[in-house]
Amino acid sequence: MSLKAIHVSEVPSLDHFPENPSLICSSRKANNKFVVVGHRGHGMNMSQSPDLRFSALKENSILSFNAASKFPLDFIEFDVQVTRDGCPIIFHDDFIYSEEQGVVYEKRVTEVCLSEFMSYGPQRDTGKTGKPLLRKSKEGKIHKWSVATDDSFCTLQEAFEKVENPNLGFNIELKLDDNLFYSSDHLSRLLLPILQVVSDIGNDRPIIFSSFHPDAALLVRKLQTTYPVFFLTNGGTEMYHDTRRNSLEEAIKVCLEGGLQGIVSEVKGVFRNPALVNKIKESKLSLMTYGKLNNVAEAVYMQHLMGIEGVIVDHVEEITEAVREMMKPSNRDADGTKPKPNFSDRELSFLLKLIPELIQH
């Protein structure tokens, strides 16, 4: 469902953010850097995947964040929601699944209090056993949430306090349910606690806000002007009742009309409409991408050649290494601004033929 339009002029602004603007576009242009972002830290979990990297570390956890920080990432991305008692927590899904006496049950994350949220999964207190943690796949199947190295849930405040590298940026996705209606007041109540934590303890850490929900992105931009806000879009690969979410062209309009700083698109949407990369750049907007193709080094390389400014990835180790090789001075032209291909003409020709096939799946 589409969200109700927000009358942001009626919402009070937070006026005590630190004077530390951290626009990704400004920092990138200063050093011609290609930005790499760790998806949910060290990568998302897909426990049913045969690729064991998707079940190595618990996603959206302090363990995952600090593991990701060992690699040359610019940011980690994670999903923030607010509990019933007003605490910003880090969790991707709309529902928590568990079981009691063999009966599976679900609870909406935003309808539980902090103490109950923290009672699921591994516990920090020695000897304390948490409630079983299950997960629902996209196919609708309920299965045990299994990872090789587990960790407890965490709050947004704990992320600021416990992520060891103070220079590692936070890409804070404002997570909302696609199937819910949000009134203006409700949306404000969800966003203000998040902004308050950032205001109180964000310090000098680079921060980006992002959201798939246009009204949430516009409102967080209205509430603060220190940190950049990016609009997340599927780029036309999925359709929604809210037409603002259905294409890169609509995403550009949302950003320009609302004063947002950039777009984060599903990479397939960009590959299907490569001409829009220049339009986005001409609109002085930053462009980053997310999606499974960003775990393929060749696809990341092509995006760099296209002028895309950064990628959100799951395979942190492999892609940071590929980008490091790609950006080596020996692989750049004399003026230092344009990379020389690391692939033969035959390889590049094959890649250009392969991408249209990949984006169909």
UniProtKB/TrEMBL annotation:
InterPro entries: GDPD, GP_PDE_dom, PLC-like_Pdiesterase_TIM-brl. Belongs to the glycerophosphoryl diester phosphodiesterase family. It catalyses: a sn-glycero-3-phosphodiester + H2O = an alcohol + sn-glycerol 3-phosphate + H(+). SUPFAM superfamilies: PLC-like phosphodiesterases (SSF51695). The lineage of its organism: Eukaryota, Viridiplantae, Streptophyta, Embryophyta, Tracheophyta. GO terms for molecular function: glycerophosphodiester phosphodiesterase activity. This is glycerophosphodiester phosphodiesterase. Keywords: Glycerol metabolism, Hydrolase. Pfam families: GDPD. It comes from Arabidopsis thaliana x Arabidopsis arenosa.
